[in-house]
């Protein structure tokens, strides 16, 4: 078994040197910033630190397996734009992937990222001490011992800190593992990456119409993402997936607990089952069972993104009803969100390939454009009172709006100065 593990790991090293993933062109940094989860700065502030950690406190970050740099570039840009003190250590064992990430950072003029070649299995070898936040996105499911790797990262997590993780999920990857098995027969991992990729491309050109991957719409980025995308999807020598119970089991074994599955409402089966009798049954389920049920029903979750902290160290979250709290749109401006509302005040929202209609109070049309990351809840109440929403009614309306859009990861709270 150890020999097999070593051979798979060697194949993985060869893969990422030949086809650094994801495939990125540094010149594109002049045109766009890729946004995602985990490691969006506003998500870290809210889901990891409860929007109570002052912005003035420097943030020490480890990107454990940075690849070609998506998370490092996004977070580094967010921190620079917000004038946030701190440093990001971007760790990866692929020099070729790091060279792409460095070039992207240079294109943006980012000076808050330090790139280190090394293994995330030995994070202490960086000599950088403890980190307030650790990103490990899309890595654990490729490792020989994910439990040991996650435990090692926990050892360099500062007190009160947290992590953002992403792992593959099985149901939304339907069709992938069948083709991986087929290609393992036709192009074993012992062959050079270039030859294996040629075989994969030939198979894709002739893939039968009945192949499950053809019916799965979750992989546009992999199938249109160049050689690196196709290789990572179908030829990766080690690829495991975690359903919700398995993910919670991984966290339990490492002494970690989830503060948020992303997006929280995606894991609420009540959104998928409007029948009152079914919803009554859902109410009797605990958080984990509800999340597992949502995954089983939706069928399209190809990944799980989760923010975690040490068990028993969950952050005290700022109160969204406090007059001095400052709501902030996670990314999309409130006015743009309003445009996605139907005439009967339901918000069209997509969980990947699944679109749901989420009811909101009609007053959301006037309130959401006012959320600018500066106005307090008190300011919002006063502005809405001038538009006919009484001070007496405002708390109930605001609570419904916030709880709903917090669950969609669209409205959060800003941390104090």
UniProtKB/TrEMBL annotation:
Keywords: Methyltransferase, Transferase. Residues 58-163 form the Methyltransferase domain. It holds the Pfam family Methyltransf_31. The keyword Transferase applies. InterPro entries: Methyltranfer_dom (IPR025714), SAM-dependent_MTases_sf (IPR029063). GO terms for molecular function: methyltransferase activity. Residues 1-11 have a biased composition (Basic and acidic residues). This is Methyltransferase domain-containing protein. It comes from Acetobacter musti.
């Amino acid at each position: 078994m150890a020999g097999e593990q070593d051979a798979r790991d060697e194949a993985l090293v060869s893969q990422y040197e030949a086809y650094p993933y994801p495939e990125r062109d540094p010149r594109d940094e002049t045109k766009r910033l890729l946004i995602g989860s985990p490691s969006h700065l506003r998500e870290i502030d809210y889901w990891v630190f409860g929007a109570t950690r002052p912005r003035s406190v420097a943030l020490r970050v480890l990107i454990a397996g940075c690849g070609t740099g998506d998370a490092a570039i996004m977070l580094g840009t967010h921190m620079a734009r917000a004038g946030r003190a701190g440093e990001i250590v971007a760790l990866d064992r692929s020099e070729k992937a790091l060279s792409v990430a460095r070039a992207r950072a240079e294109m943006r003029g980012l000076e808050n990222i330090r790139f280190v070649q090394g293994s995330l299995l030995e994070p202490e070898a960086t000599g950088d001490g403890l980190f307030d936040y650790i990103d490990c996105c899309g890595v654990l499911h490729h490792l020989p011992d994910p439990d040991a790797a996650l435990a090692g990262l926990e050892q360099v997590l500062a007190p009160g800190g947290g992590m953002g993780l992403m792992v593959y999920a099985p149901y939304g990857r339907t069709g992938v593992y069948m083709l991986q098995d087929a290609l393992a027969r036709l192009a074993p991992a012992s062959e050079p990456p270039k030859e294996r990729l040629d075989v994969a491309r030939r198979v894709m050109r002739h893939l039968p119409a009945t192949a499950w991957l053809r019916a799965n719409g979750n992989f546009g980025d992999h199938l249109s993402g160049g050689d690196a995308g196709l290789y990572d999807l179908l030829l990766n020598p080690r690829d495991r997936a975690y359903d919700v119970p398995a993910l919670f089991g991984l966290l339990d074994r490492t002494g970690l607990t989830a503060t948020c599955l992303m997006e929280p409402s995606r894991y609420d089966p009540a959104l998928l089952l409007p029948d009152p009798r079914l919803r009554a049954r859902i109410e009797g389920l605990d958080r984990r069972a509800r999340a597992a049920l949502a995954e089983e029903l939706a069928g399209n979750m190809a990944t799980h993104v989760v923010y975690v902290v040490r068990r028993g160290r969950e952050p005290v979250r700022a109160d969204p009803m406090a007059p001095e709290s400052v709501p902030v749109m996670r990314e999309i401006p409130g006015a743009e969100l309003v445009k996605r509302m139907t005439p009967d005040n339901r918000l069209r929202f997509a969980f990947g390939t699944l679109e749901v209609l989420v009811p909101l109070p009609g007053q959301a049309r006037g309130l959401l454009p006012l959320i600018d990351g500066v106005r307090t809840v008190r300011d919002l109440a006063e502005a809405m009172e001038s538009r006919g929403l009484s001070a007496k009614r405002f708390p109930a309306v605001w609570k419904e709006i916030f709880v709903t859009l917090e669950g969609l990861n669209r409205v959060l709270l800003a941390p104090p100065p």
